[in-house]
Amino acid sequence: MAVKELVALEKCLGLNSGKYSSRAQGAGKIPVLQTNKGPSLVGLSTIASHLVKEAKKEELLGSTAEEKAIVQQWLEYRISYIDRASSKEDIRNVLNDLNHYLKDKVFVAGNTVTLADILIYYGLHPVITGLSVQEKETYINVSRWFSHIQNYPGIRQHLPSLVFIKNRIYASNH
Amino acid sequence: MAGGTLYTYPDNWRAYKPLIAAQYSGFPIKVASSPPEFQFGVTNKTSEFLKKFPLGKVPAFEGNDGFCLFESSAIAHYVGNDELRGTNRLHQAQVIQWVSFSDSHIVPPASAWVFPTLGIMQYNKQATEQAKEEIKAVLGVLDSHLKTRTFLVGERVTLADIAVTCSLLWLYKQVLEPSFRQPFGNVTRWFVTCVNQPEFRAVLGEVKLCDKMAQFDAKKFAEMQPKKETPKKEKPAKEPKKEKEEKKKATPAPAPAPAPEDDMDESEKALAAEPKSKDPYAHLPKSSFVMDEFKRKYSNEDTLAVALPYFWEHFDKEGWSIWYAEYKFPEELTQTFMSCNLITGMFQRLDKLRKTGFASVILFGTNNDSSISGVWVFRGQDLAFTLSEDWQIDYESYTWRKLDSNSEECKTLVKEYFCWEGDFKHVGKAFNQGKIFK
């Protein structure tokens, strides 16, 4: 999964495909990138940040010091909470967290798209795919954000586009 | 790309629309907002300009190929790109919908509310309150639309976002304080995102959202009315002025309220004209009491020996009334100079009432222990303030009691207040200073 995602990110950034492998760690697997110039890099957010720098698109890591920290914070969140969500309750917690956080935000960090948006979008894609129309409406801020990011040029790549209904049909809860 | 020139006065929010659109499309656009290329009020009155733009209004666009266009949204459409205009017919229609929405539903109430706070339009309490309600309704519509959406149309910035953002710009800068915008979180999220897009920022700079709702600035308004005579110098000019007014009454009265489409020049012109051409006392029979004559006596002669006897000798209790007014919130009065500003501010706002009113208002007491009260003389038997919307700002802060002009109480009050001397038994505080409305 993570390797596929990094390949999508490479395409999104306009880079050529690198050499990937996976290494087992605990219950899951973590991606490994063999760089041309030297050591291999391990872990999703390490590799993703490296790719962004390779592509000279450092603005995707945040523009101010605070924004950079927030991008890192959500990359960490992606690994620690989204990837490790195993039960329905874990997933609910993640969606609640994000729904609350995105209430007054269009992007995860700052006012433009960052690596945090891209990796959370990739990580959340299987979760959102499994939601009913009604659930999508419950997590309305997540849905709005997700719909925006999946339509952002270049990000979606191989992932199927998910449907969101813009006119709410269930909720009168504002 | 053809490229072209945009004529405008500096910092015109309407001109921002084409300029932001050009940031997105890369259309080369030159701004002509200062001499020698363009001088607002001069260049746009020349026959050369009017030949190209018959309305004589800005922003106006002239392409390098000679193509001329007015109306800011049309210019934005022209200099923008397909993505901004909407990539399919459905989106294109929705873009037009929101652009029209901003012109018809946001700009009029936004102007009515914001212009007085910038001093470019007289404050009118009812108009402002009504505008606030309309803005609430409009923000409600936008808020529920933006609950499920990032931008107004599709998933990208379009001319819809540019037009609506620009029409909300002054509201967010001047009056939409945090508590007012709190119920419209989706609108604020969208607005902040828009103004922080690099293409918007390049034109708008940093947009700081309002911390505290701006109020009408009477001082600034007065400063921006260069044609207005100061009331004290009015006397010698009295006759010609009256003539002028009568002439005006004879010609069909122009619409007093500035149309929302008007640019600053137009609204200023409308404002420089007397806002109420109608005489609110037209229904009253002629009175024998000549206010101007009394004021002359009051100003030039001894109050006790000449002005007061003149007042009582000529006062016409059918045509005029005398009122006692007391400030309702004396506990809120702190520094005496601030209290004096309160009085003079009220006088300033009642400027149009000077011809048919007279008052002596006195501040009693000292810092943090004072009160304000006064004696007013008005034409007619009712409080004058309800006659004009422009006069209704302050009077609700006072309790008004009509005095019987035959009563001893009335005679005493008139004497004490007009002379600024006496026991002022009912007050219980020492005379501090007085102000005369004449």
TrEMBL record, chain A:
<keyword id="KW-0539">Nucleus</keyword>
<dbReference type="InterPro" id="IPR053836">
    <property type="entry name" value="Arc1-like_N"/>
</dbReference>
<dbReference type="InterPro" id="IPR010987">
    <property type="entry name" value="Glutathione-S-Trfase_C-like"/>
</dbReference>
<dbReference type="InterPro" id="IPR053837">
    <property type="entry name" value="AIMP3/p18_C"/>
</dbReference>
<keyword id="KW-0648">Protein biosynthesis</keyword>
<feature type="domain" description="GST C-terminal">
    <location>
        <begin position="50"/>
        <end position="169"/>
    </location>
</feature>
<dbReference type="InterPro" id="IPR042450">
    <property type="entry name" value="EEF1E1"/>
</dbReference>
<comment type="function">
    <text>Positive modulator of ATM response to DNA damage.</text>
</comment>
<dbReference type="GO" id="GO:0003746">
    <property type="term" value="F:translation elongation factor activity"/>
</dbReference>
<dbReference type="GO" id="GO:0005634">
    <property type="term" value="C:nucleus"/>
</dbReference>
<dbReference type="GO" id="GO:0005737">
    <property type="term" value="C:cytoplasm"/>
</dbReference>
<keyword id="KW-0251">Elongation factor</keyword>
<keyword id="KW-0175">Coiled coil</keyword>
<dbReference type="InterPro" id="IPR036282">
    <property type="entry name" value="Glutathione-S-Trfase_C_sf"/>
</dbReference>
<keyword id="KW-0007">Acetylation</keyword>
<dbReference type="GO" id="GO:0043517">
    <property type="term" value="P:positive regulation of DNA damage response, signal transduction by p53 class mediator"/>
</dbReference>
<protein>
    <recommendedName>
        <fullName>Eukaryotic translation elongation factor 1 epsilon-1</fullName>
    </recommendedName>
</protein>
<dbReference type="GO" id="GO:0017101">
    <property type="term" value="C:aminoacyl-tRNA synthetase multienzyme complex"/>
</dbReference>
<comment type="subunit">
    <text>Part of a multisubunit complex that groups tRNA ligases for Arg (RARS1), Asp (DARS1), Gln (QARS1), Ile (IARS1), Leu (LARS1), Lys (KARS1), Met (MARS1) the bifunctional ligase for Glu and Pro (EPRS1) and the auxiliary subunits AIMP1/p43, AIMP2/p38 and EEF1E1/p18. Can interact simultaneously with MARS1 and EPRS1. Forms a linear complex that contains MARS1, EEF1E1, EPRS1 and AIMP2 that is at the core of the multisubunit complex. Interacts with ATM and ATR.</text>
</comment>
<keyword id="KW-0963">Cytoplasm</keyword>
<dbReference type="Pfam" id="PF21972">
    <property type="entry name" value="Arc1p_N_like"/>
</dbReference>
TrEMBL record, chain B:
<dbReference type="GO" id="GO:0006414">
    <property type="term" value="P:translational elongation"/>
</dbReference>
<feature type="compositionally biased region" description="Basic and acidic residues">
    <location>
        <begin position="221"/>
        <end position="249"/>
    </location>
</feature>
<dbReference type="InterPro" id="IPR040079">
    <property type="entry name" value="Glutathione_S-Trfase"/>
</dbReference>
<feature type="domain" description="GST N-terminal">
    <location>
        <begin position="2"/>
        <end position="87"/>
    </location>
</feature>
<dbReference type="InterPro" id="IPR004045">
    <property type="entry name" value="Glutathione_S-Trfase_N"/>
</dbReference>
<dbReference type="InterPro" id="IPR036282">
    <property type="entry name" value="Glutathione-S-Trfase_C_sf"/>
</dbReference>
<dbReference type="InterPro" id="IPR004046">
    <property type="entry name" value="GST_C"/>
</dbReference>
<feature type="domain" description="GST C-terminal">
    <location>
        <begin position="88"/>
        <end position="221"/>
    </location>
</feature>
<dbReference type="Pfam" id="PF02798">
    <property type="entry name" value="GST_N"/>
</dbReference>
<dbReference type="GO" id="GO:0005737">
    <property type="term" value="C:cytoplasm"/>
</dbReference>
<dbReference type="Pfam" id="PF00647">
    <property type="entry name" value="EF1G"/>
</dbReference>
<keyword id="KW-0648">Protein biosynthesis</keyword>
<keyword id="KW-0251">Elongation factor</keyword>
<feature type="compositionally biased region" description="Basic and acidic residues">
    <location>
        <begin position="267"/>
        <end position="280"/>
    </location>
</feature>
<dbReference type="InterPro" id="IPR001662">
    <property type="entry name" value="EF1B_G_C"/>
</dbReference>
<protein>
    <recommendedName>
        <fullName>p47</fullName>
    </recommendedName>
</protein>
<dbReference type="GO" id="GO:0003746">
    <property type="term" value="F:translation elongation factor activity"/>
</dbReference>
<dbReference type="InterPro" id="IPR036433">
    <property type="entry name" value="EF1B_G_C_sf"/>
</dbReference>
<dbReference type="InterPro" id="IPR036249">
    <property type="entry name" value="Thioredoxin-like_sf"/>
</dbReference>
<comment type="subunit">
    <text>EF-1 is composed of four subunits: alpha, beta, delta, and gamma.</text>
</comment>
<feature type="domain" description="EF-1-gamma C-terminal">
    <location>
        <begin position="277"/>
        <end position="438"/>
    </location>
</feature>
<feature type="region of interest" description="Disordered">
    <location>
        <begin position="221"/>
        <end position="280"/>
    </location>
</feature>
